[in-house]
Protein: NADP-dependent glyceraldehyde-3-phosphate dehydrogenase
Organism: Brevibacillus halotolerans
Amino acid sequence: MQLPYYINGEWRKSSSNETVKIYSPYKDGVVGEVQAITREEVDEAIKLAAEAQKAWAELSIRERATYLYRWIDELLAMKDEIADIMMQEVGKTFADAQKEVERSADLIRYNIEEAIHMYNESMSGENFPGGSKQKIAIVERVPLGVVLAISPFNYPVNLSSAKIAPALMMGNAVIFKPATQGALSGIKMIEALHKAGIPKNVVNVVTGRGSVIGDYLVEHKGINMITFTGGTATGYHIASKAKMVPLVMELGGKDPAIVLPDADLKLATGQIISGAFSYSGQRCTAIKRVLVQDEVADQLTDMLAAEVAKLSIGSPEDKATVVPVIDTKSADYIQGLIDDAIEKGAKVLTGNKREGNLIHPTLLADVTLDMRVAWEEPFGPVLPIIRIKDAEEAIEIANKSEFGLQASVFTNDINKAFHVAKKLETGSVQINGRTERGPDHFPFIGVKGSGVGVQGVPKSLQSMTRDKVTVLNLQ
Ligand SMILES: NC(=O)C1=CN([C@@H]2O[C@H](COP(=O)(O)OP(=O)(O)OC[C@H]3O[C@@H](n4cnc5c(N)ncnc54)[C@H](OP(=O)(O)O)[C@@H]3O)[C@@H](O)[C@H]2O)C=CC1
Ligand SMILES: O=C(O)[C@H](O)COP(=O)(O)O
């Protein structure tokens, strides 16, 4: 399958006559190819988007909504086609890929409805000393212009629609750069928008390696806002290149599950296992380390090991939970973290077995703070267990991380839970639940190396606008 890029309401081959090949993480061979577009084609996509944005912003919000409602219908009509491609391209099970399309439809609908119910404000001058009732400010939220949306491989439809839908509802045009691994699903998602009759150039799709066209896009003077989800290193790089435009960045994480002695260990075990190992841990919000207090450490470790042993391992086509990771580079990196930990004295409770890109779920006990796996994000099925003497030590270790996405605290003492939650330097804290982004209307925030800005439907809508003030000076 060789897919074109999308510009001017048309599907085009690049004049470069070059493509980027996409390899399946779990089966031999190429699953598809996308266009390696040229810089001139990037220029054209941005120029046409800037022109189209003006008319798009002139439509009423309800008129824009009609296109997005149709997008939902078309997306759901293509659900199985997209799910099949997503499975082959990023190695997610067909059922999970279907759920991702459904979740995206819900997310688009929520964006539409939330945007329709956003209102402008007005302010009276009288509230400020010396001010007057005759001076009234009307504060409107206006679009930013052309939004550059860059998404990662792991949720190629959901994390893309989470950027595109709010941008469109608020009257922006979008340049969409899908992750190369994930671009086939991303392009199919835009095919649904095309079928929905979206006016030409309101969304243009640019494809090619991020390392080749990425900097050019990010530095482009026609881009008015960047919304990015991906790795922390890429995020820092983009932030250093971007011009003076608003940035929303959701990056990597090292989310801890802190387990205190009075926790419901059965609940904690279930949440940790699904948090750490679903989709092989390839979620930014996966639980990436366990910080368990000494008193219950042996018991929790045994319970976790027993559950890991039950995980299904293999091909997404066989509905496995632990599937091959996205590519060999990633598998090598994960194995490097495991090897380093073993060398420094960690005990392998399960796993440390590799077949190609398939890393068996690996539970590591006796993990100490000199091991890389205590700090680095594997983005794979590896879970280190670190013992702590009390909640204060857990807070200290959690906060030493370069990341600050989410954390979980398991305890039956709500006061203690709040005490720990308050001190954790993360965007969110989950009490007695696994770390996760959803439901998609909750604010989703990364701090420190995990990002800047806030996603989640209402916040995403706001982030795609700026305030515009018109002051009435009544006589
Ligand atoms: N906090 C969050 O919400 C989430 C964070 N992530 C994080 O993302 C990472 C995994 O995703 P992955 O796709 O591998 O992340 P990458 O950072 O490798 O890539 C993300 C996107 O950035 C593009 N890109 C690469 N280089 C540049 C550049 N110089 N300029 C502009 N764009 C560029 C990529 O394109 P190309 O593919 O063509 O190289 C891709 O579209 C993990 O670290 C994970 O934690 C993932 C999901 C959610
Ligand atoms: O990329 C990710 O990890 C997603 O944002 C995860 O979403 P979820 O936590 O709701 O599964």
Remarks:
- Residues 154-155, 283-285, 436-438 surround 3-phosphoglyceric acid (ligand 2) (CB under 6 Å).
- The radius of gyration is 23 Å.
